[in-house]
Specification:
Helix 5 links the parallel strand 3 and strand 4. The protein is elongated and about 80 Å long. Helix 1 packs across helix 2, helix 2 crosses helix 3 and helix 5 crosses helix 10. The protein is of the alpha/beta class. The chain folds into three domains: 67 residues, Winged helix-like DNA-binding domain superfamily/Winged helix DNA-binding domain (Arc Repressor Mutant, subunit A, Orthogonal Bundle), CATH 1.10.10.10; 97 residues, D-Maltodextrin-Binding Protein, domain 2, CATH 3.40.190; 110 residues, D-Maltodextrin-Binding Protein, domain 2 (3-Layer(aba) Sandwich), CATH 3.40.190. The protein has eleven helices and 13 strands. Strands 3, 4, 5, 6, 7, 10, 11, 12 and 13 form a nine-stranded mixed sheet that branches. A two-stranded antiparallel ribbon has the order 1-2.
């Protein structure tokens, strides 16, 4: 009996879940069936792929090498299906996306309904994670693509720029800066600024903007009084007059819905911006699904954000 693709799927599932029952459940077969097929594959190859004396079950050294090759084989199988889809003009399958929360919360509601109506057979599996987790997920094959604020050095990854998103300042009621129509970078005072926690790229971008201000060049960033894990908390804190914060441009509509647009101030030139884009590895092959996603995103992005790279690009 020759090894089958199904057997390769079973050993990959067993590595992922670490026990036969959960692997079988996720492969939609009985535990005895999965166990028997794994054993048959081991007998055919003449090696032990998994150590059963560990909990969770772990692959042997040769098992690790076999699993790596199995993943490549199944990826090549998916490429064949992708080629057929492109030839037939079909759009179906799964696109696994890692996206940072400061993008997903405001961008995805803008285009997701249109995308699902136009491509009902495409499953978008979206996971909100930090930028570092996106990169790790791409390397490990957990994500097909990432949507992030691009860095100055994106390594060996492929990137497609979507738009350039300016930052705005969200000020508490009666703040003295509300007297100004637009702000300069040097108007910012680090002591007033509320930040996301470490690990969020928006935190680093905010600090980078603050450091460009003459007023805070010699200040210690440690004076910031409150750090949060999400923008919604920061917005609520500003509403409670506990400080100001910097927000990405696409949050403006959300602020307007809260009837707080009068507390938003934009910057005069050089306007600080972040570069939003899609990132993927050199072995990514679902380009027809990626292009469909890009098309729907760009339909909802204001034209001035898509093409206006002028200003201070913050990484």
């Amino acid at each position: 009996m020759d090894m089958t693709l199904t057997q390769l799927e079973y050993i990959i599932a067993l590595e992922k879940y670490g026990n036969f029952s959960e692997a079988a459940e996720n492969c939609y077969v009985t535990q005895p069936t999965l166990s028997m097929q794994v054993q048959k594959l081991e007998e055919e190859l003449g090696v032990i792929i998994f150590r059963r004396d560990r909990h969770p079950i772990v692959p042997t050294e040769i098992g690790k090498k076999i699993l790596e090759q199995a993943k490549q084989i199944l990826k090549e199988k998916e490429k064949i299906y992708s080629l057929i889809q492109i030839e037939k003009g079909e759009f179906k399958g799964q696109l696994r996306i890692g996206v940072i929360p400061t993008i997903s919360s405001y961008l995805f509601p803008m285009f997701l309904d249109n995308f699902t109506r136009k491509y009902p057979l495409v499953e978008l599996k979206v996971d909100e994670v930090t930028t570092d987790e996106v990169m790790s997920g791409l390397d490990k094959g957990k994500f097909d693509i990432g949507i992030i604020a691009l860095r100055s050095n994106n390594g060996n990854y492929q990137t497609d720029v979507l738009y350039y998103e300016p930052f705005v300042v969200f000020l508490p009621e009666n703040h003295k800066l509300l007297k100004k129509e637009k702000l300069k970078l040097e108007d910012l005072n680090v002591e007033d600024i509320l930040l996301l926690k470490e690990g969020h790229c928006l935190r680093d971008q905010t600090l980078s903007i603050c450091k460009t201000s003459v007023r805070v060049q010699n200040e210690k960033i440690g004076k910031i009084s409150f750090e949060s894990g999400n923008l919604e908390t920061l917005i609520k804190l500003v509403e409670k007059r506990l400080g100001m914060t910097l927000l990405p441009y696409l949050t403006i509509q959300y602020i307007k819905e809260r009837k707080r647009q009068h507390q938003i101030r934009e910057f005069i030139n050089p306007i600080p911006k972040r570069e939003i884009g899609i990132i993927y590895t050199n072995v990514f092959y679902k380009h027809h699904l990626l292009n469909a996603l890009k098309e729907e995103i760009l339909k909802v992005i204001p034209a001035e954000l898509k093409y206006n790279k002028t200003g201070l690009i913050v990484h």
